[in-house]
Amino acid sequence: MTALPAPARRPHRALRPIPAAQGTVAGCSAAQAEDGAEAGGSGVARPLAVDRRGAVRLARLPWGLPTGSGELRVRGAVPADLPAVARMHGRCSADTLLQRYLRGGRPPALPALDELLRSPLVVVVQTPGGEVVAMAGGSRPAAVPGRAAEPTWVTQLGLVVEDGWQQLGIGRRLAGHLAASAQLLGSKELVADVVSQGLPRRVLDGIGPTRATQHRSGWRIRTRLDVSVVGRLGSVDGVLAG
Length: 242
Known about the structure:
Helix content: 25-40%
CATH architecture: 3-Layer(aba) Sandwich
Number of domains: 1
Mean pLDDT: 78
Shape: globular
CATH class: Alpha Beta
CATH superfamily: Gcn5-related N-acetyltransferase (GNAT)
CATH topology: Aminopeptidase
Structural class: alpha+beta
Largest sheet: 8 strands, mixed
Number of strands: 8
Strand order of the largest sheet: 1-2-3-4-5-6-8-7
Distance between the termini: 64 Å
Order of helices and strands: HHEEHHHEEEHEHEE
Number of helices: 7
């Protein structure tokens, strides 16, 4: 009997990891593999379906955010947003600014806001008339006096919603969007520095289990990220802007 020919080998189709040579964004770097061992992992970076450039592009795509007061538009921030962002901070109460910036209830100086708007993982929320009413961003965690630096796979969430637009689910949706963006970039944990736990912790509880640690300036709240949070990415959550 003539033996049947062996079937041709199919090419291996593994998901592509983030190329280490492309640097770091929101806590993703070549050192991620080493830090994975600290987190209880295998020490190998989790494969991702998109590379760094693709993940940042997804994070900055515009999307619609419906509220009881009409639909808002979320998009990647640009330097030209500075006047509108400055006006938004001027309309925020001292309590709102204190919870976000820990600076005695004062808004950041214009140069600091300008630098923030140039970060790749910063989004703004606009009304149909073009006014900015909220913004959120992901970055490397700020240093805390007396504590070791966070691992490279941790992303810090910064979130501010103008007082008149609070309690409409805006903060929750923005936090979910930034969590998904950070996860696509290889982050495993999202942290937020706040004066009091209250609302910020409830926002992060919607993403995953949270825990809080107290430090000299307030609280650091953290939640673990996994692939389930990718569905919270605004631009793929059934609310694509036209």
